[in-house]
Write a structure and sequence with these properties.
4 helices; 93 residues; 0% strand; mainly alpha; globular
Length: 93
């Protein structure tokens, strides 16, 4: 019998409040809003395919953010640095 991936329960009320605020925000980055909505949908008992259909993304994307939230909490919802060669021209130039 396969196990179903879901977001872990919030560690404290502040974490839950922050996720709820992000999920309903209008002036936050769109990627953060999407990630918070994925977590909220998982807390509601939805499975990965249902969440993906509801938020309009691929099930792999939902799994990625659920795994990151489960391991790193709110910090896991942030973008990670992209590897690659440093820029030749800096922002000030």
């Amino acid at each position: 019998m396969p196990t179903f991936l879901s977001a872990r329960l919030p560690g404290d009320p502040a974490e839950e409040q922050k996720i709820c605020q992000l999920a309903g925000a209008r002036h936050a980055p769109a990627d953060w809003i999407l990630r918070a909505r994925i977590i909220m949908a998982s807390w509601s008992g939805n499975h990965v395919p249902q969440i993906a259909a509801a938020v309009g993304c691929h099930p792999k994307t939902v799994r990625l953010w659920l795994h990151r939230f489960n391991t790193d909490g709110l910090d896991g919802l942030a973008d990670q640095p992209i590897p690659g060669r440093p820029r030749r021209i800096t922002e000030t130039e």
